[in-house]
Design brief:
This is Glycosyltransferase family 9 protein. This protein has helices at residues 2-16, 21-37, 44-55, 61-67, 69-84, 86-95, 102-114, 118-132, 138-151, 155-158, 169-181, 185-198, 203-215, 219-233, 263-269, 273-279, 291-300, 325-328, 375-378, 398-405, 418-426, 437-445, 485-505; strands at 254-258, 284-289, 305-308, 318-321, 355-359, 388-391, 410-411, 430-434, 449-452, 474-477. With 506 residues, it is an alpha/beta fold. The chain folds into four domains: 2-164, no CATH class; 165-235, Tetratricopeptide repeat domain (Serine Threonine Protein Phosphatase 5, Tetratricopeptide repeat, Alpha Horseshoe); 240-328, Rossmann fold (3-Layer(aba) Sandwich), CATH 3.40.50; 355-505, Glycogen Phosphorylase B (Rossmann fold, 3-Layer(aba) Sandwich). β5 (355-359), α19 and β6 form a beta-alpha-beta unit. It is globular, with a radius of gyration of 25 Å.
Amino acid sequence: MAVFRKARSAARLLRDNGLSVTADLARIRAAEFYLARRPLPSAPERRARLLADVLNRWGGLSAVAVEAGDLAGARDALLTPYLRHRFTAASAAAGALDRPTPLEAAVAADSLLATWDFGGIAAALPLWTAATAGTAFAARVAQVGRRAALRLGKLGEAAVDLDGIGTDRGALTLRGDLCDALGRMDEAREAYEGALRRDGGNPYAREVYGFHLMKTGLVLDGLASWHAADVLSGAYPLRRHRPQWGGEALGRRRLMVLFEHGLGDMIQMARFLPRLLAREPDAVVLARVPAPLLGLLARQFPRVAFLDERAREPDYDLFVPSMHLAGVLDAPDLEPRAGYLGLGTPARRSGARRRVGVCWRGHPRQYEATRSIPLHTFARLFAARSVDFVVLPNSLTPEEAARLAVEPNVDAPPIRDFLDLASLVASCDLVVSVDTAVVHLAGAGGVPALLLSRPDSCWRWGVAGPQGPWYATVDVLRHGGDMDWPRLLAVAASRIDALGTAAATA
């Protein structure tokens, strides 16, 4: 695309004039909120100074940027596509550094880590390692490499020589993440708490410590740590004119529930709405949700005024993020664990054969790769001819559609929204899905499901065993080490075969 060619040209111009391209990229992520809501001045000198102040933290860089109008133009050319397409432009700009300095290599690594380009990190790691050998940046590049290996499902590679990681806050947080993924929970907690003793004000350390606590069953403690991370990072800056609800009596005040993160997270936290409504019968409860969920949640919770998150907000007195409802409602039991979301009338199915809903991927973004399964690998399940399969991803690529068309027992009906998806899930005897909104919908509706968990299992699915704490009807299939989708699929195939056999002999 032309925009990325322009970004690469801008990257080379900046580098040729002695500026670290990736220094900009590393700072842009932190500055996105600021820049997106503060119009950039039109005067080139003021524009360059603002960008330099926001993006640069190395001596002398600001003066160079202000004095050289052509560099300011190049900086803008790099900034604009990165803000709009950061998951691609960061890689394009970092890829222009074929002979990086040690500083450039380290910041390039951080840039791709910030954009979750783990494959890009793995590809460039030998170059960066060579560029930083014997320098103060070598340890940071090695840490980024371990993080990429962790998120690519290569837990063994990521955890080699854990004692050699280091003892600074970043190293201890990484050690905690690795031990948490490996199920070594005592070691993980020790590492996280060590990181917080060194830097208790670091939002990331607070956040991942909260995830760890929730994963081990300490949900309210984990939410408290997560809330502390939000405060430290300045989350919800546009809400500062309204107080965040802390659980006090609402009376007749108006409360806005901000449903956040992924669609699955929103379905997961919707379980607490009945408890909220029962505890605060006189309050006016509003909720902002993405358009795809509006119909489903509004049908289930008619006392809540659901709003499209893109619409202008009405007035309200307090707000609460949906992920913090369990904490403010003091609900460590996480009830209800099933059946709190009506799925509607089951979609029509032909014949009496058992039906299995399947979902092998989430959104096709690069950072979803570790929780998605290639369709050619997943398709081994379709060998079970005694059951019918229904496809639950809401859109298929041409390649996926062609691959599924050759399977006689696989149906791929159109899915317009979550009402359609819920109806299909309701028609299934079993759902087999990776960690995406589909499995949350099945669990919330009380439909039996098999979760094909990613190697570094998400906090919500617990540490071990066949079930996590949030859904009574979802069984969790775990890797127990490096990514091994064939083993998990073999277990799922056995369950599907048993389902078909039971139907045939009934």
